[in-house]
Amino acid sequence: MPSVLEVSGLTIGFGGLRVIDDLSFTVEDGECLAIIGPSGSGKTVLFRALIGAVPYEGAIRWAAGVKIGYVPQKLDIERDLPLTGTDLLRAKAHVGRVSPDDVPRALRMANLGPDVVGRPIGTLSGGQFQRLLLACAFLGRPTVLLFDEPTAGVDEPGEEMLYETIGRMQREQRLTLLLISHELSLVYRYATKVLCLGRGRAWLGAPTEVLTPSRLEELYGGPMTHHFHR
Amino acid sequence: MIADLPAVALSVAMATAAGLVGCFAVMRKMTLASDAISHVALPGIALALLFHVQPFLGSLVALLLGTLLIWVVESRTRIATETVIGVVFSGALAVGAMFTRGEDLIEALFGRAGALPAWELTLGLVGAAGVVVFVLGARHRLVLALVSPDLARSAGVHVRRLSLLYLLAFSFTVALGLRYLGVLLMGSLIIIPAATAKHATRSLGSMLAVAVVVAVTVTLVGTALARVLQRETGPVIISMAAGVFFLALLRRRPP
After folding, report:
1. Cβ atoms A167, A187 nearer than 8 A
2. With CB atoms 3.0 to 4.6 Å apart as the test, which of A111, A123, B38, B109 could cross-link to B187 if both were Cys?
3. DSSP string, B84-153
4. Do residues B80 and B27 lie in contact, with contact meaning Cβ atoms separated by under 8 Å?
5. N- to C-terminal Cα separation, chain B
6. Rounded Cα–Cα distance for residues A171 and A177 (Å)
7. Which residues of B touch A92 (CB under 8 A)?
8. Is residue B151 within 8 angstroms of chain A, CB to CB?
9. Which residues on chain A are in Cβ contact (under 8 Å) with B151?
10. How many CB pairs under 8 A join A and B?
């Protein structure tokens, strides 16, 4: 399988503190890479480097023709902001030079109804807003999706719907997924590879190889439990 | 009235730009900053009067320098923008007030729609048109950057450059309105109509439209009323804008 992303010798620091130190990994076409680790281990910083939002040392090489769809970490949106879901989708379509005709397809993929997108984004539930961000990411038919904690701030039924959408799009669209998650059940269920960050180190491999009880205990400083979603 | 036509055209153009720029200032939570930015024009006006240069040009240069300062602070340092604005711009107001005296100071602080030279009319109309075209053209990028700068970056938006362009548009709009509202009140014409529109609407298009209608209406009616009442234009315009805002608050927000 060809590599979609090659990261080598990646080092990111802020004010003398190295958050990520000499990290190297590759992501193949159609893979689902889950990135896990305790808070402050550099997961979101890594994503921000991948989209060019923070300076770094080392090399990040995306394959030619890769189109990135990015779903950011839970956003704190003011409740009375006069911006509807339609405003956000239009903005994303315009900036990405995507035809507005692509919006209904993106909404269908994200399983989001037109009644929901007509509402101000500050009034949407956590799950609805995450699905709106997902629809934004689908615009322009991306080949790679970066997903930063997709279920943060989402209730359990909403989580289930998001998981199903993620699983469906991976099967149907053959997208390459990069996923930051604290939900180990999600990682076991969908990830083909796991990158564990923490304590200045990184481990890469299949979920069953990397996510051993002893390593999780070492990473998180205590025994980790998780539950599987049906 | 015919003789006033150029002044009316300029005030409509200025208010349109103020309404549009204000929408993003309010959504970006720049309300206090917007008010303080206009204060930096005062030392520019003072220096212009001292060296017998047009006050408009002095204020424009001071505002542009102030804008660059905010932009550098926002993007390069960890000092809170509000802190820098509070210190530098209030200091600028104090220094400017020391070197401007009497009638000139009152005019600079509160505005007075006096004689309008042709070059100022032309620059004002072209500048206001530029601000309107920028805000409408960049509104999609501004929305993405507002909701999530990282989402905007991943879509190819140069967020830092966009922020600079927006702040320059903001400063130019302030400069345009100084003759009507003065350095103390021009920030309010940018903020109050947009804050009114934010309360009364629920989508971007309607917010932009309502902000422009409120800004233009209070500017035109306020200027006429100031003449009738023989008062400075700025306080009358802003009192009306504040009245409209409180009236809008009485109306329930659309669901």
Report:
1. no
2. B38
3. HIIIIIHHHHHHHHHH--HHHHHHHHH-------HHHHHHHHHHHHHHHHHHHHHHHHHHHHHH-HHHHH
4. no
5. 43
6. 11
7. 140, 144, 151, 155
8. yes
9. 70, 72, 92, 133, 136
10. 79
Residues of A in contact with B157 (CB under 8 A): 95
State the complex-level ipTM.
0.84
Q: What is the pLDDT of residues B182-217, one digit of tens each?
A: 777 888 899 999 999 999 999 999 999 999 999 999
pLDDT in tens, A63-97: 998 888 898 887 878 888 999 999 999 999 999 88
- Taking an 8 Å cut-off on Cβ atoms, the answer to whether B156 and A96 are in contact is yes
A177 close to A137: Cβ distance less than 8 angstroms: no
Place of tokens 């059940």: A185
- Distance (Å) of CA B58 to CA A123, B7, B65, B87, B250: 45, 21, 11, 21, 41
What length is written for chain B?
A: 255
- CB-CB contact of B28 with B162 (8 Å): no
What pTM was estimated for this model as a whole? 0.86
Chain mean position to CA A138? 13
* Euclidean distance between CA atoms A179 and A150, whole angstroms: 8
CB contact under 8 A, A52 and B153: yes
- Separation of alpha carbons B190 and B34, rounded Å: 8
Query: Which run of H or E residues covers position A171?
Result: helix A156-173
A126 CA: distance to closest CA in chain B (Å): 15
Residues in chain B, pLDDT under 50: 1-3
- Would you call B139 and A72 a contact, using CB atoms and an 8 Å cutoff? no
Which residues lie below 8 Å from residue A91, measured CB to CB, with a gap of 6+? B139, B140, B141, B143, B144
Most distant pair of Cα atoms in chain B: their distance:
55
Long-range contacts of A130-134 (CB under 8 A, 24+ apart): A130/A71, A130/A74, A130/A154, A130/A158, A130/A162, A131/A161, A131/A162, A131/A165, A132/A85, A132/A88, A132/A89, A133/A71, A133/A72, A133/A75, A133/B151, A134/A71, A134/A109, A134/A110, A134/A162, A134/A165
Range B209-214, long-range pairs (CB < 8 A, 24+ positions): B211/B19, B211/B20, B211/B22, B211/B23, B212/B15, B212/B16, B212/B19, B212/B20, B213/B19, B214/B19, B214/B241, B214/B244
Residues in chain A, total = 230
